[in-house]
TrEMBL record:
One of its GO terms (molecular function) is RNA-DNA hybrid ribonuclease activity. The keyword Ligase does not apply. One of its GO terms (biological process) is DNA integration. Keywords: Endonuclease, Hydrolase, Nuclease, Nucleotidyltransferase, RNA-directed DNA polymerase, Transferase. InterPro entries: DNA/RNA_pol_sf, Integrase_cat-core, Integrase_H2C2, Rev_trsase/Diguanyl_cyclase, RNaseH-like_sf, RNaseH_domain, RNaseH_sf, RT_dom. This is Retrovirus-related Pol polyprotein from transposon opus.
Length: 784
């Protein structure tokens, strides 16, 4: 047709060219030769609604000024859109955006819309403006062809075929697909039957993706400089372009940065090992870095990245070569050290028995027939046969044993091989022989009689070791070492988030803490051992729940329910629940209590001793124990426990470091595992230099604690000021209160002297002196 032309490749044969022209003529309606040939996509098939932020305000951009040439191009493009029915004129717009004119490579103009303000008002998604409609449309229309024989991005489409003969069928499939949805092609941009083409700014050939020659033509066609000025100009251009041309080492650094950015959760949770042949670590750690390399080095410094040289490629190639040439091992082949055990049990009216066949290396064949003197079911006979066979293999010194049985019950509970009865005939015959023949009738095989079941034999020297494999640490260890996650999506998401605070070192799980860099994670059985040792062990003084929590955390241990478990442990402790009265009554000690002269000051004098006395009461639980023997342990616990007043341990205030408690030997903590005698000696000297700062900080904390206690007490005190001669009532003592109806205040008395700090001396109205001083809290005015 005149005026309707498309481009086809010149490398086609006449036959292929004829087939291609026939396909194009049959689908001439798939091209949009004019604007009126574009009916548009059915809104029922694809209609996009912009998710605009409700708080966003409508923006009407100011009109921009364009040149004469651009104004004519804008008018022409707008007229085409009006004729096609894509746009219409309105009088009162709420959103108004200017157009952006971009010159094409052909010299024509492309009119685009300024989506800056609209993008700000719309939330981000996988289809950003202005390509949102085109992207979603192509994904939906070509859903059955994308990746198979068509590649598309926005409005660029490439039909790819493995051979020329299949290319025409792929073209026809594309024409049928776009014709179904009334999608039209621009004939000026279409090329058919070519072996290379431009796609997204690159050249696609059978060799792969290559640079676009049009973009490189300026460099390729540039002539060599012939004058000094041209050389200077070339040097300036190279210096200007150098910031766009990355060196090899810069490309590697950028690749690591992009990987760390996209996989941030992995880089933050683990130590990443990067193997390469380039000295990337030395380059990133150079002190004279500048520009983008310095920026990348700072961004990568937050991750635990370890750079290692890559191993030799030749060794890996040789290993792969040997693996390919090594023939596969024959199934069922017996190795030199492998023994095969075939067992079977039988039970009938004549009795019960079992048959055992043990095959070993070197052609060794042992047959054994067992007869049971007790009644046994068929399943019990199978179990007895297996136990007897394993005992026989142990006596023969077998180290690798493969057991076979025709009982699915037995093989389902152990790692055994299930075989058919036809493949286990020898053991089957021996079991029937043992269950039917009388003792002494079988002399060609080993014969043995069991008088009682194996389960009734007493167990001696048996050590049961229970390992908490399914503990709370299991999911974290599985994720950090093998990247395994639970099937539950919520639990898997929780493990991924929480794993950033855990690390595996030497196959042990540690938690990043605030009180110390690393806290060793414990199972519940290990946690109970730690709590028992710290609370009531060799150096334990039965401290309270809160002190036990602080001491466990300070020692470097962690488990999820640490605080609750410590409190419950103290509440359930037998020694902490006993009372000294019961102990004294049991051993025949008579306790006599006396009153003190100044009870107000007695609590202050005994404040330092009450904790030690409480620990002694809980340690002394039997009549044979002596408090003198328990005193060093209680004092050690007292000196290694953090005090709430100073927020430090007395041991640390004296020696400059925390003492090692016994449980750190049984369950090594971080500082025990990483102990170095040389570093420890140097660290102790540094601690002694800094001990003055620690003591000053403890003194400040103690003063602050005293002030808090005084402030709390003073808030409850009603201020009372008395002068000499005032009449007052005194709070009655317990000895003066005979019953519940006795008065709580006695007097009146007269103020004889003001001692100060709220203390007063009293005398009776007759002039007699009242012993000791009285605090204002125990006095009140008497009104007459």
């Amino acid at each position: 047709m005149e005026g309707r032309n498309v481009k086809i490749g010149t490398s086609l044969t006449p036959e292929d060219e004829e087939k291609l022209v026939r396909v194009l003529k049959d689908n001439v309606s798939a091209f949009a030769w004019h604007s009126s040939d574009m009916p548009g996509i059915d809104p029922n098939f694809l209609c996009h609604k912009l998710a605009i932020d409700p708080s966003a305000k409508a923006v009407i951009q100011k009109r921009r000024k364009f040149g004469e040439e651009k104004r004519r191009a804008i008018a022409e493009e707008t007229q085409k859109l009006v004729m096609a029915g894509h746009v219409r004129e309105i009088q009162y717009p709420t959103w108004l955006a200017n157009v952006v004119m971009v010159r094409k490579s052909s010299g024509k103009w492309r009119m685009c819309t300024d989506f800056t303000d609209l993008n700000k008002a719309c939330p981000k998604d996988s289809y950003p403006l202005p390509n949102i409609d085109c992207l979603r449309l192509m994904d939906k229309v070509l859903v059955n062809q994308l990746g198979r024989n068509v590649e598309a991005y926005v409005d660029d489409m490439v039909v790819k075929s493995e051979s020329v003969s299949r290319h025409f069928g792929d073209l026809q499939e594309l024409f049928d697909t776009i014709g179904k949805y009334q999608l039209k092609l621009n004939p000026e941009k279409c090329s058919f039957g070519v072996q290379a083409g431009k796609f997204l700014g690159f050249l696609l050939t059978h060799r792969g993706i290559e640079a676009n020659p049009d973009n490189c033509s300026a460099i390729i066609n540039m002539r060599s400089p012939s004058t000094v000025k041209e050389v200077q100009q070339l040097t300036g251009r190279m210096a200007s372009l150098s910031r766009f041309l990355y060196q090899r080492i810069e490309k590697l650094a950028l690749a690591i940065l992009i990987t760390a950015t996209k996989l941030r959760h992995y880089f933050q949770s683990h130590e990443v090992v990067i193997r390469m042949d380039y000295p990337i670590r030395q380059v990133l750690q150079k002190p004279d870095l500048a520009g983008r390399m310095m920026k990348w080095s700072v961004e990568l410094s937050e991750f635990a990245i370890k750079y290692e040289p890559r191993g030799a490629i030749k060794a890996q190639a040789l290993a792969d070569f040997l693996i390919e040439l090594t023939p596969p091992a024959e199934e069922g082949a017996i190795t030199e050290t492998q023994w095969i055990l075939s067992v079977d049990g039988a039970s009938n009216l004549g009795g019960s028995g079992a048959g055992i066949v043990l095959e070993g290396p070197g052609g060794i064949l042992l047959e054994q027939s067992l007869r049971f003197e007790f009644r046994a079911s068929n399943n019990q006979a199978e179990y007895e046969a297996l136990l007897a066979g394993m005992s026989l293999a142990k006596e023969m010194g077998a180290t690798s044993l493969s057991a076979r049985s025709d009982s699915q019950l037995i093989t389902g509970q152990f790692s055994l091989n299930h075989v058919l009865r036809e493949q286990n005939l020898r053991a089957d015959l021996l079991s029937k022989l043992a269950s039917t023949k009388k003792p002494g009738a079988t002399q060609s095989v080993l014969r043995e009689t069991l008088t009682q079941p194996s389960i009734n034999e007493p167990q001696r020297n048996v050590l049961f070791i229970q390992e908490e494999l399914d503990s709370w640490m299991g999911p974290y260890i599985a994720y950090l070492t093998r990247w395994e996650l639970p099937e539950d999506k919520k639990e898997a998401s929780l493990i991924q988030r929480e794993s950033a605070r855990f690390v595996v070192i030497n196959e042990r799980l540690y938690r990043r803490g605030f009180s110390s860099p690393l806290l060793r994670c414990l199972t519940m059985s290990q946690a109970q051992r730690v709590m028992e040792e710290i609370h009531s062990g060799m150096c334990g003084s039965h401290i309270g729940g809160r002190a036990l929590v602080y001491k466990v955390a300070r020692a470097g241990y962690f488990w999820p329910s640490l605080r609750n478990d410590c409190v419950n442990w103290v509440q359930k402790c037998d020694g902490c629940q006993r009372h000294v009265h019961e102990f004294c009554r049991g051993v025949g000690i008579r306790m006599t209590f006396t009153s003190v002269e100044h009870p107000q000051s007695n609590g202050q004098a005994e404040s330092a001793n009450k904790i030690i006395l409480a620990g002694l009461k809980k340690r002394v639980q039997d009549s044979d124990a002596s408090w003198v023997e328990e005193l060093p342990r209680v004092l050690w616990s007292y000196h290694t426990t953090v005090h709430s007043s100073t927020r430090e341990t007395p041991f640390n205030l004296v020696y400059g470091t925390d003492a090692m408690i016994p449980i750190e030997i049984a369950k090594p903590s971080v500082r025990t595992i990483a102990f170095s005698e040389e570093e420890s000696d140097q660290g102790r000297r540094v601690d002694l230099d800094l001990i003055a700062e620690t003591r000053e900080r403890a003194r400040i904390n103690q003063v602050a604690a005293h002030r808090r206690a005084a402030f709390k007490y003073n808030t409850k005190v009603v201020p009372r000021d008395f002068v000499v001669g005032d009449l007052v009532l005194k709070r009655a003592q317990l000895t003066q209160m005979r019953n519940k109806l006795s008065p709580k205040w006695v007097g009146p008395y007269k103020i004889d002297d003001v001692v100060g700090k709220g203390a007063y001396r009293l005398r009776t109205l007759d002039g007699g002196m009242i012993p000791r001083t009285w605090n204002a809290a125990s006095l009140r005015f008497y009104y007459s």
